[in-house]
Every structure is written in C-alpha cells, then in structure tokens.
Amino acid sequence: MAVGFIWFDLGYTLLYNEREKLFNQLITDRGYRRSEGQIELAFHVVDKRFMREYPGLLGTPAKKFMPRYFAQLCEYLEIDGDLTSFLNQWLKAWEENRLEWLAYPFVPGLLKELRSRDFRLGVISNWDPGARDILVRRGILEFFETTIISSEVGAVKPNREIFEIALEKASVKAEDCLYVGDNYYDDAVGASSVGMGYRIINRFGTFGVEELDSSILIRDVTELLPYLEKERR
Hints:
single chain, alpha/beta, six-stranded parallel sheet, two-stranded antiparallel ribbon
C-alpha cells in the first residue's frame, strides 16, 4: 500500500543548530585549526556512536552526557591539553549562547510540496515543551496536522506508546505511514514496533552507520520525493 502519511523527527531531520561554529570559535581561541568539514564530521561520528551505544542519553540535559561526548569529540579531532577547563568553557558557551534551532533551508519548500501532493504530515519527537514554539518561529508548524511531543504526552521514542498515541490522534493506520528521522535506534526501532515503514537520514552516506542496511538511508529529506513517487505508481 502506498504511503499517505509522513511523520517526521525534528532535530537533524527538519531542524539543526550551529553548534559546530560555536565549537570552532572555542578551539580557534585555543590555537587549534580544524576545517568546518572536519568539525561537522566529528559531531556526526560522535552523535551516531552515542545513538548506537548509549540509547536515549542525547535526549537528557547536556550536563549529563556532555563530559563523555566532549571527550570523544576532542579525541576524534586530536585536541588535547586541559580538557576539563575546555569542557567547562564549552558548557558555559553552550548555556550562554542558547543555540537557536533553525529549519534547513530546503525544509519549508519540501513540506509545501508534499502537502500539494496530498500527503498528510505529522511530527513525533522527543523534545521539551519548547518544540511547538520553535516550529512556529521557523514557520513550519502549519504544515503538520498532528504534532506529538514526548514532553506533552509522557512517552518517548523508541517506546511504541508514543507511536500508538500518534496513530490514534491522526486516525491513520501504521501501514499507511512512513517515519523519517536521523536516529535508527530511536526512530526505526520505534516506528517498526507498530508496523510503520521508515527512512533514516545520514548526511555522510553510510559513514558512521556502517552497521545499517544502506537501502533505508537518505542524505536529507529532499530524497523522499523520488521514493514516494515511485511508491505511488
């Protein structure tokens, strides 16, 4: 059966922040020179490692996971020295800058195109109560007929409960749905537990997620359109 309803994750699926720029500023002040590409790749590798080895940890307050995360980030980028003071500086900068979540430039246009092709759209996300305000500020909340936020419903991915809540609220069957996210261990595992199909975003091909079947991977949400049109034929 062709997909009629597409559910999206938020962070690093539709939204991103400029953490790499902030990190680059700090290491530059400490005398390190790393390219933007190197830093993006380092965050990507550590993100995927945490998703795989420490499920759910990235969704907790930064102070809980950041020491371990930061150490692995610095190791990948070959940054040494007094990492304790550097970590404290990073945590302070993270708190003071309160990095804004932005929509990827291609997201509003894609969502508009999907709606014009009669796809129903929704969100299922592990996020704090500020999620809806972010979607309003980015001008994309209007595209979603159903928005399910973990902090509002008391259930989190990958638990099937949050997906069941979404299906019930949208009055849609799982087999008519596709879930799109960037975390296989939250998104694919959770979606498949209720019978949804899924696609996982990985900007660097298979890099960092070599354990996964490459057929489920897309580089960003713009790659959905060819797949969806093929399914509708």
